[in-house]
Amino acid sequence: MSVTRRTRRAxxxxxxxxxxxxxxxxxxxxxxxxxxxxxxxxxxxxxxxEFAGPNGEKPETLDALTLTEDEKAKVRAGKYRAAFVWxxxxxxxxxxEKGATEQxxxxxxxxxxxxxxxxxxxxxxxxxxxVMALDPDIxxxxxxxxxxxxxxxxxxxxxxxxxxxxxTPPSGYKAGQDFVSIVTESLTxxxxxxxxxxxxxxxxxxxxxxxxxxxxxxxxQQRDQAFLDWxxxxxxxxxVVAKEGFADEARTEEVATxxxxxxxxxxxxxxxxxxxxQGVVSALRNAGRSDVKVVTNDxxxxxxxxxxxxxxVIGMVGNGSLDIGRGLAISGAYGVLDKPAPxxxxxxxxKVTKDNVAEAWKADYGTEPPAAVTK
Length: 375
Hints:
Elements: H1 3-6, H2 10-17, H3 29-38, E1 60-61, H4 69-78, E2 81-85, H5 91-106, E3 110-115, H6 121-132, E4 138-141, H7 146-152, H8 154-158, E5 162-166, E6 182-185, H9 187-201, E7 205-213, H10 218-234, E8 237-246, H11 252-262, E9 268-271, H12 274-286, E10 293-297, H13 301-308, E11 313-318, H14 321-337, E12 344-347, E13 350-352, H15 357-365, H16 371-374
Parallel strand pairs: 1-12, 2-3, 2-4, 4-5, 5-6, 6-12, 7-8, 7-9, 9-10, 10-11
Antiparallel strand pairs: 11-13
Helix pairs in contact: 5-14, 6-7, 9-10, 11-12
C-alpha cells in the first residue's frame, strides 16, 4: 500500500475522533460488580473508562476489525509477507506474536522475521534495516523510543509497507497515513482491575505504595493513572503513601527496598508491569515482608508461581494478548488491501488471581501455565 493511497484514509480519523467509545462493556462482570458496590461509599466523581491514543485517537473494540470472505481470499492470493520488530522479549510479547502468527497463517501471510531490541532504540533501528532487507509487505512493531523511531521507521513508510502498531507509534506518525492502526488493551479497565484486586485483598483499607514507569509513555501513564483514580474512588480508606518512579525495570528492587524502608507501614504495592514487579517481590522477600501484597500487569511465570505459592503477589492483569496479536494481523491485512481501518482498537483485560490462574492463562496466552504456576 503506497503512502499516496494511504492518505485517502485520513478523513476517517476525524470520524473516529468524534466517536468516543465507552469501554465499560469490555470489562469483566466482576469488575462492574465491585465498582458499582463501591459507588455509595466512595467520594468524588466516578472515573471515566474512556482513554485516548498518543495522537488523541479514540478506541474502538477489537471486533471493529473484520474481513469479508472475499477480502480474505484476496489476501491469501497475494502471498504477502510479514515481520515483527519488537521492543523487547517477554511472555507477553511471545503471546501477542503467537496470536498474530496464527492469524497470519490463516490469511496465507508468511512471517519472515521476528526481532527484539532489549529496550534499546539503536538496536531497534538496526533491526528495521535487517527486516527491510527481507522485503516484507507488513511490519508489526512497538517503538522503543517514539522520537528516534520516527527516523528509524521512515524507510518502512517510504517503501509503502503496511506498518501496524502495538501501542506506541513513532512520533508524528498518523493513522491512515504513516501506519494502518494501533492495537492495544483497554487501559482504564486494566487500571481498575488492578485497583480492585489490591483493594479487595486489603479489605478496602490500609496504606499502599505506587511504583510507576517514569517515562513519557502514553500507554503506561494512562493505565497507571487509572489505578490511582479507581483506588481513590472505590476504596476511600486506602491511602497511597508513597509514589516512586522507575526508568529501568532492572532497578526496581532497589527502588522498592528504599520505598519499604521509608514506609514500613505499607501493606500493598502496585507496579506498572510484571518484569518490573519481579524486582519488587525480591526486595520484599529480602526484607522479610511477606505481609505486603503486590499487583501488576501482564502474566509472568515467576510472579504466577509466587502467587499460587501464597507469596506477595495476589493478582495480575492480563492484556488479552492473543486477541491483540490477532488484531495486529488483521490490521496488516487491512493495509495490504488498502482498506480504511480504525485508528485505535482495544482489547479488554483479564483479571488473574490464584483462583482462576489456569483458565485465565490459557485464555490470555493460549497455553497451559507452567507447572510451577499450577503446583
